[in-house]
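Reader question, answered in our methods column.
A reader sent in the components of a multi-part assembly and asked whether the whole thing could be modeled at once rather than chain by chain. We filled in our standard form and ran it. Here is what they sent:
COMPLEX SIZE: two components
ENTRIES:
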Amino acid sequence: MRSIIYYLREFLRPEWIRKFFFAKTAPLETPSYFKGYPTLTGNECTACLSCMMICPAPKAIAVLRTRDGWEPEIYPGHCIRCGLCVEACPEGVLSSGRILDVTRRDGTAFWSWYHLQVDDNLCMRCGNCCVSCPVNREIDPQLAGSGTSSSDEVIMRVEGGRVRILHEEKCTGCKTCETQCPNRAIRVARMVEGVQIGEAEV
Amino acid sequence: MKKTVDVSIPLGPMHPCWKEPVRLKCETAGERVLRAEVELGYMKKGIERIMQGRPWQEVMFLAERVCGICSVVHNMVFIEAMEKISDIAVPPRAAYLRVVANELDRIASHILANFSYCYTIEHETLAMYLLNTRETVLDNLERLTGSRINTAYMIPGGVRFDLLPGDAAAMLADLAKVEEEMRRHTRIFETGPLIALRSKGIGFMSREDAIRAHTVGPTARASGVEDCDLRLRHPTYRELGFTQVTRTEGDNFARVMVRFQEVFQSIDLIRKCIDTLPEGPIRGGGFCKAGETSYAGEAPRGELTYTIRTDDYGRVVDIAIRTPSVMNIEACAHAMIKDAASIADVTSTFISSDPCIACNER
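And here is the structure of the entire assembly that came back:
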C-alpha cells in the first residue's frame, strides 16, 4: 500500500508529468549524404533497361509496363542500395538520396556500349544472326536468306565465308542474334565505363 | 620423457569474446597450454565461386561482402587489380579520395580490434569508450561514401562521389575529436597496471617466428618485422609519405599498441590528403579488358592479395583471394599460444592477433 502511494506521489509530481507528456526529442533527420532506396522522380521512362542491366543484385529492379508507358519498380528486399541504377539511367527517372544530385554536380556518368564477338570455331556461317538482327533489317531490307548484304552500313554480314562485324557501335544490345544462333557462336556483351562528362553535357 | 596431456579444452566455436565462430582446441597440462589447433569452417560462404563468371559490376559488390569490417579495402584491392589488368589510370583526386576512404576504414577496423581485446581482458569500460569513438569514424565514412559498411565507393578509373569542401571541414573537425579521444584511450591502455598484467609479456612471438610463420600486418610489425607494410609501395601513399609503425616487444601489449599508433598515423594521412587534395575530375576513362594479374594491398590486418583472370566481356573468369588472417591465425596458434602460461590467456592472445574469420572463410 505504501509503495503504491509512493508511486502515485512520484508520478503526480508536476515535473514528472511535464517531462512525460511534453518532452520533445528532436525529430530523426535523414542525413543528406544517406543513400536511400531508389524512388521515382516522375520523368518518363524510355524502357532502355539500363538500370536493369547494370543492377548487381538479382531481382532488385524490373521495368514494368503500366497503362501509360513504362516504369521501373524497385523491390526493397533485394535492393542493396548501391545506386548504380540511378547513375546509369540516362533520363533521370530514378532518384536515391543524394546520388542523382551528386552525379549531376560532379558530371559523372556510366557510359556503355555493346561488344560483339563471333567464335569462328563454333560459327557455321548460316547467317541467322545477320538476318534476324532488327537493326540490320531496317538498314538493308533486301537482306537475303544467306545473310549476305549489299550495304556496308549493316552491323554484320557474311563475307568470304565468315561473319564479319562492320559497325559494332550500331548494336542496341537486344541479343536477337545471340538467341537465333544455333551454335551460340555470337556473343553480345555490355561494356560499361565510368566517365566524367563536361558540365555542358549534363 | 613422454609429454602428458591432462585435458583437451575446446574454445568455441561460440565464445562470448569472439566476434565470429572459430574453434580453438587447446591441449593442456594443468593450467599450462602445450599445443593449440585452430579449426575453421563454421561460416564458409563460397563467395569466390559465386564471383566466377560475373561481370565486374557484380563482383565489385561481392568483393566488399567478403568482410564486413574491412570492406573498403577489399573493394579497393579488387578495383586496383582490375585497373592493373586493363591499364586504367586513376585521376589524382580520385586516388587521394580512395586513401581517405581506406584510412577511415582502417581506423574503424583497428578500433574494433582493440575494443575486442579490451573486452577479452575484461576492461569493458575502455571497450565501450572505443566503440563510442568508432561511431564517429563510421559516420564520417558515411559522409564520404553514403554508407557505413558496404560502401562500393571505388569503380574502375575513379571513385563514385566527390568530397565537398563543407564535408571536408566537418570531417577534419570530427577527426580532431577522434584523435583527442583516442589519445585518452591510449593513455588508459598504456598506463593501466592491470592491463599490463594481462598483456605485457604474454603471447610472445619473436621476430624469427613471425618471419617463419609469414605473419603480416600489425601482428608482424609488433614483433619487429620491418618493411612489411604494403602501403609503402603504393604510389599514392608514397606521394603522401609515411613511415610504418614498428614495435619490438612482440607480445599482446605491443600488438594492441601498434594498432593504437596506426590510428594516429591514419588520421595524419587523412589530414594530409584533405589538405593537399588535387583539383580535377574524379573519374577517368577506360573499361575492363581481358587479362590476368595478382595484386596485393595493405588491409588493416595485413597483406591482401587478389588473383584475377578476366575475359573480353569484362567478366571475372577466375578469382582467388588471399586474406591476411590466414597466416596470422596459424602463427597465433603455433607461436603465441604454444607454451602459454595459463589457459586464461589463450582467448586474449588469440584476439590480440585480430583474427577475421569472415575473411578467412570466403
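What stands out: The interface with chain B takes residues 31, 33-35, 54, 56-57, 80-84, 87, 97-99, 102, 105-108, 115, 117, 187, 189-196 of chain A (CB under 8 Å). Residues 44 and 68 of chain A are 10 Å apart (CA to CA).
Send us your own complexes using the same form.
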